[in-house]
Amino acid sequence: MLPRTPRVSRTPRTPRRVRTALLSVLTVFAGLAALLLGTGAPPAAAAASLPCDIYGAAGTPCVAAHSLARALYGSYNGPLYQVRRASDGATTRIGLLSAGGYADAAAQDSFCSGTTCIITEIYDQSPRHNDLTVEGAGGAGAADVGAPADALPVTAGGHQVYGLEISAGMGYRDNSTSGVAVNGQAEGMYMVTSGTHVNNRCCFDYGNAETNNLDTGNGHMDALNFGTECWFSPCYGQGPWVQADLENGLFQSDAGYSRNTANTGTGPLPFVTALLKNNGQNHFALKYANARSGGLTTTYSGGEPTASGYSPMHQEGAIVLGTGGDNSNGSIGSFFEGVMTSGIPTDAADAAVQADIVSVGYGGPTGSTGTLNPGSEISLRATTACCTTEYVRHQNDAAVTSTVTSSSPAVDKGDATWIVRRGLANASCVSFESRNYPGDFLRHFDYRLHRQPMDGTAQFRADATFCPQTGKSGTGTSFASYNYPTRYLRHYNHTLYIASNGGSNDFDSSTSWAADVSWVTGSPWAP
Questions:
Q1: Does domain 21-360 bear CATH number 2.60.120.200?
Q2: How far apart (Å, rounded) are the C-alpha atoms in residues 14 and 16?
């Protein structure tokens, strides 16, 4: 067993209130029925009964509850995560705005101002204190690094918070846990993740893993996996799929491959609820949902894998986030919240938890539009005479300009909507986060603009930072590249570049340069 990183001192936690199962379930369904029916807007305030309250009342208490965004118990008022800043190595814990509420992201912004921070620990809100620290080396990967703390800004409950953006080589783990299922015991788990930040590498997992960072055999893991890796053919559609990493395979059924032709994956949903239940003996189930609306869909419910070692299971009880059990760490992914339970939750409890997740309103409007102030949602319109109906949008990961009108498809409007963030390399400048691809930013590479996930590197930060100036044509705003200050954001043949006024490249042409680099900042196309 790897040595466990000592725990930091913890803020005292508010005692949990005892609720009867009947009262809690009635409260949850009464409070969230309108939301499930689409008749009410998500409230900004925290719900009275949160996921671990719901599961606890149903007789399957949480043994792990992790989130950077919010409390997962109505009474929780402790820390959510710890950050360490690069300038002096100091650390601080990020807590809540109020008990049962949302993260105090402003505290992180203040602490990390003028420097960068990484996430070094994610605290378990359950009484078990199964906190996750940066993962050490394993059988398939070198020691991981912490994720950048500012890589995934998002709105939740009407507040700006941060999620966890995992790039290859990042991961978190706890090899010495309390209460997590072992040796065939029953458990359930869910996580809120994203269908827009995925790949086909092993393994973006959250759940039960080995205690020694090695592959110790079939059935020694029981973790949620989310990505586009098809371990057992056939898989249907393009994914990403919710799968069970039970060690030595990502399972969509007892046979490994998908038995469900309708399960083509979630597609590029910005926010996804992924859920796994396993009785540890002869049955497991997989579910998913849009974390912003609607209910859960079951993609599999049946026997354990037919290969030897899975029935019964042999879980070891570690918790992993972002990698495989042996620290296979080539995957990418997003994490907003997740829990693990003792015992199999009921379908009714799962449904109530999904309704609560929907009530959070992940990725909802920021409440500010049409300006270059941080947090404002905008669309950028060209001012050149030829192109005044064209807007900056992303398309197949590239940044282009195209015509967007009130009758345009919703996907075009979403692609043409950006959230202004403090400059990733300089807070006096700005960066542009994609509205429908959380954690992806407008970034130049080889002078061309792309939409890419923020990986925390200094290079990315500089490439994704632009400094507003009065429009070079006398209209609107021009945006100078932070690391190439004589180059400005320009449209040329419907493609975006950072361009100088004259040069050897076609896109540096002086013809209409001043107009091409001047933009009108307007209200966002996406609602």
A1: yes
A2: 6
For the chain, the C-alpha Rg in angstroms (whole number) is: 23
Is 415 designated active site? no
Residues of the chain with CATH 2.80.10.50: 377-522
pTM of the entire structure? 0.90
SS3 of 312-347: the string is: CCCCCCEEEECCCCCCCCCCCEEECEEEEEECCCCH
Pick the CATH number of 377-522 from 2.60.200.40, 1.20.1530.20, 2.80.10.50, 2.40.50.140: 2.80.10.50
Q: Which of 144, 245, 247, 356 is catalytic?
A: 247
CA quadruple 268, 496, 150, 522: dihedral sign: negative
Both tokens of 510, joined, read 């002086």
Given the residues 104, 144, 174, 326, select the one marked as catalytic.
326
pLDDT of the chain, 527 residues: tens digit per residue = 333 333 333 333 433 333 333 334 434 444 443 333 333 333 334 446 999 999 999 999 999 999 999 999 999 999 999 999 999 999 999 999 999 999 999 999 999 999 999 999 999 999 999 999 999 999 998 999 999 999 999 999 999 999 999 999 999 999 999 999 999 999 999 999 999 999 999 999 999 999 999 999 999 999 999 999 999 999 999 999 999 999 999 999 999 999 999 999 999 999 999 999 999 999 999 999 999 999 999 999 999 999 999 999 999 999 999 999 999 999 999 999 999 999 999 999 999 999 999 999 999 999 999 999 999 999 999 999 999 999 999 999 999 999 999 999 999 999 999 999 999 999 999 999 999 999 999 999 999 999 999 999 999 999 999 999 999 999 999 999 999 999 999 999 999 999 999 999 999 999 999 999 999 999 999 98
**CA 109 – CA 475 distance, rounded (Å):** 33
Catalytic residue flag (residue 187)? no
